[in-house]
Specification:
The chain is of the alpha+beta class and about 210 residues long. It has helices at about 55-75, 110-115, 120-130, and strands at about 15-25, 30-35, 40, 45, 45-50, 75-85, 95-105, 150-155, 155-160, 165, 185, 200-209.
């Protein structure tokens, strides 16, 4: 249309949202496998799974390679997430996928990657920022994950009569977090905590390995 600021994106009526966790030292980049973040509401991720289930092996390999290639081309330093969409109606080894964005930071759903790799991603950020290399951090030969993990976001919300969900708030009179083998809870909640309506309604993240 004669306007260089206009661009077009392919419409995928049934899409999967797959993102690849990368770590770079400014030269070398390694992937820390992928997450499936398809289940969303109003463009906010609600449930995240790692590794992405039912992903064709060759398709997974191509997505991981693309993420690393992009990171290396950018001279990426630190942790980041390379995000893709793929057509969920025709999944197979040759399924095309499409780049959405790079998030140059640690993300809320980093926990599932920690659970399947055994890595502390927050500590890893500091190591890379202090000058250690990908090889120094042991990231150049990560084993294939043998576990799966899912993260569910627990929000302070109320359900209205028309089925709409609205952020809600108040004071927690009781707060009991689950525990046990394979259970992790990241939260700022406690009995007596008063929520602040000026911030996100996320109260806790429940992670199961």
């Amino acid at each position: 249309f004669g306007d260089g600021s206009l661009y077009m994106e392919r419409y995928l009526p049934s899409a999967r949202h797959i993102e690849v966790q990368i770590a770079g030292d400014g030269q070398s980049v390694a992937h820390l496998w992928e997450r499936d973040c398809t289940i969303q509401r109003r463009h906010q991720k609600l449930i995240e799974v790692a590794p992405a289930p039912r992903l064709a092996p060759a398709l997974r390999a191509r997505m991981l390679e693309a993420a690393v290639t992009l990171g290396e081309a950018a001279g990426y330093l630190g942790l980041g997430t390379i995000e893709f969409l793929l057509d969920a109606t025709s999944e197979g080894d040759d399924t095309p996928f499409y780049f959405i964005e790079c998030n140059p930071r640690i993300q809320v759903e980093h926990t599932v990657t920690e659970e399947i790799t055994g890595l502390d991603l927050v500590a890893l950020q500091f190591r890379l920022a202090s000058g250690e290399s990908v090889a120094d951090c042991g990231l150049d030969a990560l084993p294939v994950p043998t576990a799966s993990a899912v993260q569910l976001r627990v929000n302070t919300e109320s359900m209205e009569a028309d089925g709409a969900v609205r952020p809600a708030g108040g004071t927690l009179t009781r707060f009991d977090a689950p525990g046990g083998q394979g259970i992790r809870v990241d939260s700022h909640g406690f009995a007596g905590y008063a929520t602040n309506p000026q911030f996100d309604s996320l109260l806790a993240k429940l992670i199961i390995r």
